[in-house]
């Protein structure tokens, strides 16, 4: 875009979003609207859990469907492999069934072959389902790049009955990912940054991000407890929508900043940190951004208290790191600040030392907070 031209405000979204208990086995009518030949991508665990039932439903509805097993990493090689299989099947719809990396891979395959895309998440652990981008990793699980698409998914279908049976850790991870939305978006908006949608934030993008955070502070604890019981409640529905739709629209059309950049920095490390989910690493990134911005104690503790209740990692030890490991922390900060990262969407330019100090400050503050509250 020419620098002499004004930068527009941009808002993007999926064509259709459907949420409710039991709707996976009522998906045929929605799928018929976007294509005739459906390739379903799911990992082996998800396929055994719910894929066979979905195939029976589609078969009864006279929908021609085929499935392929996702091998676990949203990498260029896996996308190419599945793209060739999709072309061989002559698919006009790619269906991603599963978690964030499966869904990001399905979006990439659909883009490569020019097909429609349907996204069926089985957890509410990330805001990947609604966006027109994928996070691409290398074969070792290290963050590689963001890959952008011309359009968002044609259909996002969220079966809360399935999600309620998933481990509560996944919902907590999704809450952490979604809690970053307004923290990052308000910083990006203040900096007049360019969003993932390719322009400045709209009023709607900002309002969605703010509503996402308000919803989570209001209902996250109830929803987490409902998930522990394996039940769907109004609070659970609200949080699943916040994790998936509000966070997805809010981050994409509102803006990202340091929380996700620090997450991406964590992927540059080796070792036990890779046992953590996307959202768990984002949680520490969010606290680090709040510390970097000089957030008052009372505000910082709103986030910290919720994260502790949800069992999210809030100390360096929980990330398999330590304040003394300056080499690793500097590696994280350096990766988080590399050219093109969203850490530059702040009103000031952070340095590696500032990011390292923020990460250590979170650890120090949390330890004192826990001691003070006998946690």
From TrEMBL:
Its cofactor is Zn(2+). Glycerol binds at residues 127, 177, 260, 278. Keywords: Metal-binding, NAD, Oxidoreductase, Zinc. Coiled coil: none annotated. This is Glycerol dehydrogenase. PANTHER family: GLYCEROL DEHYDROGENASE (PTHR43616), GLYCEROL DEHYDROGENASE 1 (PTHR43616:SF5). It comes from Larsenimonas rhizosphaerae. NAD(+) binds at residues 43, 100-104, 122-125, 131, 133, 137. InterPro entries: ADH_Fe/GldA (IPR001670), ADH_Fe_CS (IPR018211), Glycerol_DH (IPR016205). Binds 1 zinc ion per subunit. Its EC number is 1.1.1.6. It catalyses: glycerol + NAD(+) = dihydroxyacetone + NADH + H(+). Pfam families: Fe-ADH (PF00465). GO terms for molecular function: glycerol dehydrogenase (NAD+) activity; metal ion binding.
